[in-house]
Amino acid sequence: MNFSMLPKVDRVLEEAAEQIKADQHSCSQQVLTTAVREAISFLRQNYSEESDLSKEELFALAVEQSKKLYFKKMQPSLRRVINATGVILHTNLGRAPLAPSVAQAVFELSSGYCNLEMNLENGKRGSRYDHVRELLKELTGAEDALVVNNNAAAVMVTLDTLAKGGEAIVSRGQLVEIGGSFRIPDIIERSAATLREVGTTNKTHLIDYERAIGESTSCLLQVHPSNYHMIGFVETVDTKELAKLAHKHDLPLIYDLGSGCLYPFAACGVGQEPLPREILAAGTDVLTFSGDKLLGGPQAGIIAGKKSYIEAIMHNQMLRALRVDKMTLGALEATLALYRDGKEKEIPTVAMLTVSTQELKARAQKLLASLKSAGIKAVLEARLSPVGGGSMPDVELPAFVVEVAVQAPDEVLSKLRATEPAVLAYIHEDKVCFDVRTVGAEELEELGKITKEVLV
To answer: Tell me, what's the pLDDT at 53?
Structure first.
């Protein structure tokens, strides 16, 4: 190519800016300048001397390429996604979505100043942990509570405080691995405690714990299998019995619940998850669980239990590295307030887990009608969907899925992910599937519109 044919940066910049402003009313000159230079460089590298494109055609191509690069650069990395997979606690999609009132509370707290560490009654410095303490005590029955940035951190700082330098006794059947290959044995090691395994993979008895207790024992640790389920020839020790044994030897019983919930899903026929209040009432001294799973709040690790142990954890220097910010505390406080006020169904996770099959079918039929109105051949199928997020592994929820047969399903999924907002669906038997359980009623029309734009 005769490089003199390439358009000048300033000319492309002017034309591209005019077109962008006509469409969006504003334009970042700095970002667009970088995009224009990259576009012209692309033309220089990809069009040979034999190219028969005219100067005007090269100019038009440079403008279009510049705009394409500009919009890509301006698009935020974190984007809104319509989750049409049916997986409620989708780890890759940020797990639990927040309730509208919770999101509003976070906005109000983060858009100005707040009393994060200020006691407004006396005007002196306060503690960030005070803001959710009373709510957690009320909802769990704990004597005291505090919050760190996730449940792995909660387990680690608890063990670092109460088991450091000693042995933490754990059943072999409870040495779980959570997401990202984080394992209970590794967390125990990081907390400077020594793992003492007892029992077997499928069966552990009370006598196994009792025989293992010695002078170096610092705690008994019970881990709830929140992300797997064993059936068959299986036996575990009841929490109440384990607590009696721990207290007989003046040891704390630490319970890692993992994906803790405050809503009685088991009473509604959804899973068999124990409630924090039940576990603490059985004699557990320190309980840890997540805030962004079945609880339906922000990512957080909640530590609740006996006041003396919580106070000891509060003085651990590691806590500063694990502390949560004002937005997390604001979101958690607002979520907990919904439980306190009997408004749990406003929490999306609770609503999605307890929604009626009639409501799901109505949503699916609405989406189906929308697609069919555009000539898209779609069908409605009854299927099952998982909870996700390492929670309720043995629960499959009844679902209604809208399926569309297409020539290249992977290509369709790619196009759906590229829309604004992005749409995440899945493939089943070469069909693109939309599970409406995780699609809000207010998102159905938007999902239908985007899907029709991609498929028609």
So the answer is: 78
